What does this fold into?
Amino acid sequence: MKQIISTDKAPKAIGPYSQAVSVNGFVFCSGQIPLKPTGELEQGDIKAQTTQVLENLKAVLEAAGTTLENVVKTTIFLADMNDFAAVNEIYGSYFVSNPPARATVQVARLPKDVKVEIEATAQRK
It folds into this structure.
């Protein structure tokens, strides 16, 4: 049975989608951008934006009863592939051991003209 996941510890969805959906033991997280839970955009550099994105994902996963340690796949969307090394540094600090599978792509534009968006799929504990 499909369960909608929602938390006020991450920004509310800015469109007709859920923060995450849990089904068959997996949690599918919508892409997170560097919005703070208050709705304010993180204006810092790519490292600050990536940190906010990962904190948002962490909060959504916790609301679903799982953690970043149970993430099996992520997709990173970058506005500029030149930011890859900086994003990778922050990302690596969140996924220290047994990191998930991952794809990273450069896109023409992201919502609210942010620099990074990350989506994730995790197993429930």
